[in-house]
Write a structure and sequence with these properties.
There is one protein chain. By secondary structure, the protein is of the alpha+beta class. The chain is built from three helices and six strands. Strand 3 and strand 4 form a beta hairpin. The protein has one domain. The strands form two sheets. Strands 1-2-5-6 form a four-stranded antiparallel beta sheet. Helix 1 packs across helix 2.
Amino acid sequence: MTEEDKQKIQKLIIDLHDGLQKKDEKKLLELMEFKTKEYARAYYDSPEEDIKNFKKIVLEGVFQMIGGKLDKIDFKKLQYQLISDQKVVAVTSQSGSSPITNKAKGFSMPLYFSKIKGEWILSR
């Protein structure tokens, strides 16, 4: 994994963090579309239905839970671990927790990224 790869993944983490704090549904759907559709396929659901449900249930629930506030990310302390036959990168803090958290509210979002067609995406 190169420094350039890490920078691109960090940009996605920043976008996700900002999207959650700003309650930017459009940005979050863009970032999580692949993940949501893959989840639907894995459970034999309609990807289109899961996108609708994502908007309705997941985003509204998360927005309500965190109230637009997430803990600050220390990018110097992030760890990148190749998993799944080196096709997926798990990103955690040094303690092994997700970098996207609101500890006061008990919220965290695991982060897994994959390079698909030359672009890094949130994959799980």
